[in-house]
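Q: How would the structure tokens look for this protein?
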Amino acid sequence: MNTRQRLLATLNFEPCDHPPYWEWAYWPETLDRWYSEGLECRVGYPASMLKSEALNGGAGDWRPPMPREGDAKRELNLDDGYFHPPVWGRIPLPYEKIILEDNDEFQIQRDIDGVTKKILKNSMSMPMFISYPIKSRQDWEEMKANFEASFQDRIPPDWAEVTQSLRDSQRSFPVSLLGFPEGLFGHLRDLLGVDYLLLSMYDDPAMIHDILDVMTDLWIGLWEEQVAQYEVDSVTFWEDMCYRAGPLISPKMFQTFLSPRYKRLTDAGRSMGIKHYLVDTDGDMRKLIPLWIEAGITGVYPFEVQAGMNVEEIGKEYPELIVLGGIDKREIDLGPEAIDRELEKRLPFLLQRGGFIPTLDHHVTPEASWKDFVYYRQKLAEYCEKYSPYVKR
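A: Here is the predicted structure in token form.
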């Protein structure tokens, strides 16, 4: 079976040889350590990458020209990854990236999304966000007045070449629409910032509804263009709308602002033949899972263990929910005995249940040695062969 066949079988709770062998992403410092410990560097990563940027793994929201990890994939025979077509799904067209300040320690830039942020150059850390494109109702009205929904304005000049392999119905890799940084809450936050967004849900709900409606209309139009050109396997919403203590908005606010748009999007997508809808959010999302299911979402990831997420419990409570991730990345740092305990705790039930792609619960950290990561991936494959529904090919 190829990766696409494995993925579709897994998403459909059907038997296959094994779920896709994937990880989400890798920090450059992780690869630096592995190269020093024996991993052969053939692909590497761009010299211009900052330590706070990551390389996509197979499950990551990869689209050209993002960097993608290739050396661990090669050595461990991991599966081909998701392809997210490079269609610009944010409301404003790209801003010109401007470097406002640059020194040995940090860089301050206005990025292509119009967000001004301070990025540390030599450490893995979140940027410090300074300002966002929408600071007032007037900013939104001006952005909407200049809004351009044309598909041709939202694809790269080499679109035909980039997507040539997508038009092959026998392709071996899966295709998913949207993905980082496109999601209902995720895009709202990048437009307004968390503080102004949450305040506006109370102070100016009409503006938030208006933004969400424009966003939803845009995506449906872009999806219609794409399904006419190639087969689409899923849609991914990048949200990151939870933290360790729970969601950033209440379930009531979720139902008021987000549920109607998720339902409209999933209904529209299903009418186009798209069956699967995945949500990416960090943190403790337990209060939101039933609301996503009601709105047509079929799968969630990555289930951060340090935020209290337990994929076995989730898999039992929601037997039809597709589960991706859920293996505590911190345990991989501690060596074989800890890895054995962690995999035995997380994998047997869900692999037998189906609808499960086991990966670490976030990026692979530089605390994990190459030797221990190899051991983890080999043991994970043994569990998949032992417990997964198996079809000989």
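The first helix runs from residue 3 to 11.

The domain at 3-92+132-387 is CATH 3.20.20.210 (TIM Barrel).

Upvote if useful.
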